[in-house]
Amino acid sequence: MIGPKIHLEVIHEGPHCIVCEYMAKVVETIAPEFGELLRWEKVIITRRDGALRFEELSEALGRFPPVPSIVINGKLVFDTTPGTEKLREHLQAIIQSMTPELE
């Protein structure tokens, strides 16, 4: 495999944001199940690099993504914190859609 198939970004305000931290914890909890298929990161909008990425995402989405939220492969997927099972199911569906069926 050349690299991760899924790029997940948690739009995050910073460590003072409890809701943001909770959303990141949900991702952190299930991320190991997906190994190298998943790359995830916090886009901390109060830091320069995070603010620049937030601006890029906003332009691509045509609006500001909510804080916190989850963007997967450049698409806003969750604007509220999903449970671990809901996030796991969504990631599995993405993987299945990328994998050609064996005949």
Detailed description of the structure:
This protein is α+β, with helices and mostly antiparallel strands and 103 residues long. The chain has one domain: Glutaredoxin (3-Layer(aba) Sandwich), CATH 3.40.30.10. Helices cover 41% and strands 21% of the residues. The chain is built from three helices and four strands. The protein has helices at 18-30, 48-61, 84-98; strands at 6-12, 38-44, 69-72, 75-78. The chain has a four-stranded mixed β-sheet, sandwiched between helices. Strand 3 (69-72) and strand 4 (75-78) form a beta hairpin. It is globular, with a radius of gyration of 14 Å.
Mean pLDDT across all amino acids: 92
Contiguous runs where pLDDT drops below 50 for at least 5 residues: none
Radius of gyration: 14 Å
Number of E-type strands? 4
Total domain modules: 1
> Can you tell me the CATH superfamily?
Glutaredoxin
CATH topology: Glutaredoxin
Helix and strand element order: EHEHEEH
What structural class is derived from the secondary structure elements? Answer: alpha+beta
Overall shape = globular
**Beta-strand content bin:** 15-25%
Largest sheet: 4 strands, mixed
Fraction of helical residues = 40-55%
